[in-house]
Amino acid sequence: MTTRTAIDDAVESRQADGLEFLTEFLRIDTENPPGRNYREGAEFLREQLEAREYDVDVIDVPDEVVEEHYPNRTDHDRMNVLARLDEGREGPDVHFTGHYDVVPAGEDWATDPYEPTLEDGNLYARGSSDMKSGIAASVLAVDALRELGVPIEGSITQSMTVDEETGGFTGLGELVREGHISRENTDYCIYTECFDSSRICLGHRGVLKFRVVTHGEKAHGCMAHGGENAVMAMNDFLTRIGEYRETLHGRTTDEPVVPAASARADVSATMIDAGYSENVVPDRCTATFYRVLVPEESVDGAREELEALMAETEAATGARVGYEEIMFAEPALVSRDCTVAQTFAREIEPHHGPPEYVVSPGSDDQRFVVNDAGIEECIVYGPGLLEQAHVEDEYVPVEEVVTAAKVMAAATADLMGHLDG
């Protein structure tokens, strides 16, 4: 049997290797959109994992799947990495998964976002918290178990996927659709997204992104009576959205959403476009919206409510109102009493005390595992800091990566029956 102390020591002894892995990984600019350098990222991961004796597949996403979800980005290759350790013994499959795409770095960084900088124990780079550090921690955790000679009862799988930042459909969603992650081959799944090493994330709110288009009739501004102003029709709809938003704010959840102010449903108008010239009555106005669902809601229910608002605007203005859906993600939620959550809770406690159970304010790839693959034994646990996601001068504390790796290693040994005590 293996002790927690031995696991902690093994992680510490490999800390420099883990930091080198993460630093090299962060140097690869895998910005999404559009999906830059995915091939380079996948080949880096293949080399690293094959050197660790994993059986590795780099799985190209079919062109038709990319075309379906990202028709404007088909000139960028997309591929997911699937790696497996199996020593031929009976036991559970423990699956760690994370995405290796990052959001665009943007401007005004104090340092080069793709030349990692270590300062005061923090590693600065785009993707350091969200979420290449999660992938590095899970690799380091298994490295430590291998160094200790812990037998693999069942298998350990590591997957690294693309496009989470734009919906995940060609990433983890594609692995689930193709059966690489299913109830038949996966017993426990840990999605290593950034919530810090003291928290267990049980799920996330849902989201519905959509456009509404109001249609009118063009006319010269000096004879506006001859037209139908699509902007004014949109004004009517936006007024109704404002009233709807007040209703949604009263629709709260008791689930531990962080931050607490996000424990409610919401809708925001995020973009608007109309008009040709200052002297032309516009015949079309388009607005884009972001609807957030609490776990108790469904996307179908949200659609029905929006259809009712659109019908009210049509009746009040006489304008035709159209709906264009951009994407949706149903809420996802698992029980804090599930085996994987309770196992990680036991291993977090020696480092942080009792863990905080949380629910994410935004959607992520956990939904594909829980909702589509039907795997209830799936949590989110990773070292990155939620407040560092998508910001300038993003960083991850190195100690967070080390602590998360210790927890992941001990939990894996525990799930496979090799942890003393």
UniProtKB/TrEMBL annotation:
A molecular function (GO) term: metal ion binding
Every Peptidase M20 dimerisation domain range: 203-313
Check the record and name the Pfam families matching this protein: M20_dimer, Peptidase_M20
Quote the InterPro entries the UniProt record gives. ArgE/DapE (IPR010182), Bact_exopeptidase_dim_dom (IPR036264), Peptidase_M20 (IPR002933), Peptidase_M20_dimer (IPR011650), Peptidase_M20A (IPR050072)
Give the superkingdom in one word.
Answer: Archaea
**According to its UniProt record, which cofactors does this protein need?**
Zn(2+); Co(2+)
Q: Could you tell me the keywords of this UniProt record?
A: Cobalt, Hydrolase, Metal-binding, Zinc
Q: What family does the database annotate? A: Belongs to the peptidase M20A family.
> Do you know which NCBIfam families this protein is assigned to?
DapE-ArgE
This chain's protein is named ArgE/DapE family deacylase
- Which organism is the protein's source? Natronosalvus rutilus
Q: Top-down, what is the taxonomic lineage of the species of origin?
A: Archaea, Methanobacteriati, Methanobacteriota, Stenosarchaea group, Halobacteria
